[in-house]
Amino acid sequence: MRVIICGAGRVGYGIASRLAREQNTVTVVDVSPELVGRVTTELDVRGVIGHGSHPDILKEAGIESADMLIAVTHSDEVNMMACQVSHSLFNVPTKVARVRAQSYLESEWNDLYSREHMPIDIIISPEVEIGKAILRRLHMPGAFEVVPFADNAVKLLGVHIEEDCPIIETPIGQIPDLFTELQAEIVGVRREGEIFVPSPEDQLYVGDDAYFIVRSEHANRLLEIVGTNEDRARHIVVIGGGNVGTFVAKELESVRGIRCRVIEYKKDRAEISAEILKRTVVLNGDAMTAEIQQEAGVPDAELVLCLTNDDKTNILSGVLAKKMGAKQVVSLVNDVSIQELVSELPIDKIVDPRAATVSSILRHVRRGRIRDVFTLSDGKAEVVEGEVLDTSLLAGKKLEDVKIDGIAIGAIIQDGIVARMDKNLVFKKGDHIVLLAEKSAFKQIEDVFRVSTDYF
Predict the structure, then answer these.
(1) What is the 3-class SS of 234-268, one letter each residue?
(2) What are phi and psi of 153, to 5 degrees?
(3) Do 119 and 159 belong together in one domain?
(4) Other beta carbons within 10 Å of 294
(5) Nearest residue to 25 via CA among 52, 46, 48, 8
(6) Sign of the torsion formed by the C-alpha atoms of 245, 233, 135 and 109
(7) Domain contains 455
(8) Rounded to whole angstroms, how far apart are CA atoms 241 and 246?
(9) What local confidence, expressed as pLDDT, does residue 456 receive?
(10) What is the rounded distance in angstroms from the CA atom of residue 151 to the CA atom of residue 272?
(11) Can you give the three-state secondary structure of 119-157, one letter per residue?
């Protein structure tokens, strides 16, 4: 596939890295020579310096033969115009744009993106994706990762293994036999920064992060068993009244029993947030001072969400909130190198905004019958939902006969029902499979869900 990516920032770099590894022909366009130089030096991609919405720059990038344009610059308008130019002048089949301003996303303006007006095939909103990820965690606080698959029939849960976890040092292959009433599979383990698919003989240890694929109605019970079930927060403070913070606070207004306050440093942004929010108190002040946190009720808060656009503010205000008595703190952190340091600080969880955005875009880029994708640990692993075709490599095979290095099947949905993981279960056309794949197995994912010659 020939893909042009406009924007060489964190998101553009992440998408380029993933697509280049999978033997796609990728060209990255950006106005910054430094960013273009970095991406072309570190990745097997071509770079073009210039504005991604200019026809001559797009032509230099090879737009005339491109299969897809992905516009993820920092400017909504540049992204939208790049899609318009790609359609009107070069007839590019698929156009993806990152759009951040919520005004562009109001349902009453949906006609704007029709082929007759501004033909954008896929719109990605980072703020909405991040907000949804945070809200999922709020509803299931015992997990650090919560992602639905197969129309919410199953969920991916990331669980940190503590000392009181009852399945520590138990062979993973024996765990399902201990809790026969649950439909849950451990598909991945993160240990010392690396994710791997465990063998049946592997065991979990204190400090590990375990990734489960669990039937959705069994998710809370699973968290109770592994010792991480927590009460849902009722008193919440949101630091940052920008797009992400305001989106989260607005969604929380519809949840009965939750009391929320917002702290925003910029006066004009605080006024905008206050106009949008109807039942939420918005305070204008510096969240890195004890006085404003005290006024917002941080010492009594069950949860503080640090969601500004600045990593350092999110980290430092989170550390202060924890010191003042907040029960739990979640910080939004963009910089991958900083994320690794946060584990040394009194911050309970971090949110990686790039992961949500990259996952959303990859969902539409993948070939074959792949329905959904979620990336883990900056691309070290993926959780994928795919559909079995009648000519698929899986069709007609028993579960026990499917052995692929670096891939673990977590759930099989047959006829709309989450099937028991019986070794004699036979895959058939129309089944949806949710699996985790290590980075080394990404290429095999597409092979599994595509028509191909014998593979196993």
Answers:
(1) CEEEEECCCHHHHHHHHHHHCCCCCEEEEEECCHH
(2) -70, -35
(3) no
(4) 12
(5) 46
(6) negative
(7) no
(8) 5
(9) 38
(10) 34
(11) CCCEEECHHHHHHHHHHHHHHCCCCCEEEEECCCCEEEE
How many separate domains does the chain show?
Answer: 4
Tokens representing 4 are: 């042009």
User: How many angstroms separate the CA atoms of 350 and 116, rounded?
Assistant: 42
- Residue 107's pLDDT is what? 66
**What CATH number does the domain containing 118 carry?**
3.40.50.720
With CA atoms as reference, report the closest residue to 39 among 6, 77, 65. Answer: 6
Q: Are 61 and 71 in contact (CB under 8 A)?
A: no
Residue 187 corresponds to which amino acid? V
Q: Looking at the domain assignment, is residue 347 inside a domain?
A: no
Instruction: State the 10-residue block means of pLDDT for the chain, 456 residues long.
Output: 93 87 89 96 96 96 96 94 94 91 70 72 83 84 90 94 90 88 94 93 94 95 82 91 92 90 96 94 96 96 94 95 95 81 82 78 68 83 88 84 91 94 91 93 75 42
Decide which of 68, 93, 124 is a domain's last residue.
124
* Distance in angstroms (rounded) separating the CA atoms of residues 309 and 170: 42
Three-class secondary structure of residue 249 per DSSP? helix
CA angle 174, 180, 181 (to 5 degrees): 150
Query: What range does the domain containing 57 cover?
Result: 2-124
Q: Are 311 and 351 within 8 A, CB to CB? A: no
Q: Residue 331 forms beta bridges with which residues?
A: 306, 350
Length of the chain equals 456
**If DSSP codes are grouped into helix, strand and coil, which group holds residue 388?**
coil
Q: Are the CB atoms for 233 and 141 separated by under 8 Å?
A: yes
